Amino acid sequence: MLRLEKLTKVYKTGDKALNAVDLDVPKGQVLALIGPSGAGKSTMIRCINRLVEPTSGTVTLDGVELTSLGLGGLRKERRRMGMIFQEYALVERLTVMENVLSGRLGYVGFWRSFLRKYPQSDVDEAFRLLDRVGLVEMADKRADELSGGQRQRVGICRALIQNPSVLLVDEPTASLDPKTSRQIMRLIVELCEERELAAIVNIHDVALAQMFVSRIVGLKLGTMVFDGSPADLTEDVLTTIYGDEDWSETIQKVDEDDEVDAA
Ligand SMILES: Nc1ncnc2c1ncn2[C@@H]1O[C@H](COP(=O)(O)OP(=O)(O)OP(=O)(O)O)[C@@H](O)[C@H]1O
Ligand SMILES: [Mg+2]
Question: Disulfide-capable partner of 17 in 43, 169, 226, 256 (CB 3.0 to 4.6 Å)?
């Protein structure tokens, strides 16, 4: 279980990106984090694995407080947090297999990783994962020869081979077409259920979030303004999260169209 308590981030610039956020994510739960640009979604994900240092508050994963760990302890705990990014962050000139295996770098020793010598058990697991996401035939292809959807599947395998207990996912579908986006979201949710992983998925596409996850959290200016089921996410709630301006503009457009129709 992942627990955030009063998690706060104020950047050097004075931007209060995260404002005392309290959140529990139990094992096996996939939570979608929505909110307008600048709401603090990426900041929240990065504060959890301390790519960004929180200003105050705590993050606890399976009883271990991450926020008070030193560098050595943090490196070890980071293995338990798989990251998946919008831009995939694959090594282009390496093969699919090598990219997946790079997820084990936190485990194998320095020389082994320098020589890229992975234990057979890691290679076997990489094949199993690639098979699970439908890419086993592409194991020897170079990453730069893949489509966006295929690249994201590789990114998912690379995160899972770490054997994490939580997945942190930042805009996994932002570069993908609608159908591929659905396939990737479905895959993430299924894998989390199979492996009992907690996951936080930052996502701009509210409809996509509603389609696949059971819990949605809304952030606005660093503050949690909604926490509920997809069915609770009414138009009023969306107005609270995204603001009046967006919706009134939408309504205005409808009015204009009506006038055109009338004319
Ligand atoms: N490295 C940084 N230094 C200073 N301010 C930052 C930094 N990163 C983010 N911010 C600020 O913190 C706030 C939250 O940004 P964040 O990137 O977390 O938002 P987001 O919800 O992920 O937005 P988007 O949907 O556009 O990705 C913004 O006001 C942003 O300008
Ligand atoms: Mg972001």
Answer: 43
What spacing in Å lies between the alpha carbon of 86 and ligand 1's midpoint?
Answer: 15
> What is the helix (H) or strand (E) element at residue 198, kind and residue range?
strand 198-202
| Spacing, Cα 111 to ligand 1 middle (Å) | 37
| Closest-CA residue to 54 (of 43, 42, 62) | 43
Q: What is the pTM of this model?
A: 0.89
218 lines ligand 1 (CB under 6 A): no
Identify the CATH number of the domain in which residue 193 sits: 3.40.50.300
Please report which ligand is nearest the Cα atom of 35.
Answer: 1
Taking the centre of ligand 1 as the mean of its atom positions, its distance from the CA of residue 101, in whole angstroms, is: 31
Inside any domain, residue 67: no
Report the alpha-carbon distance of residue 132 to residue 153 in Å, rounded. Answer: 10
Place of tokens 């990014």: 85
What would the pLDDT profile of 113-131 be if each residue is shown by its tens digit? 666 678 899 999 999 999 9
Closest residue to atom 3 of ligand 1, CA basis: 11
The answer to whether residue 56 is domain-embedded is no
Asked whether residue 262 carries a pLDDT value surpassing 70, the answer given is no
Which pLDDT does position 248 carry in this prediction? Answer: 40
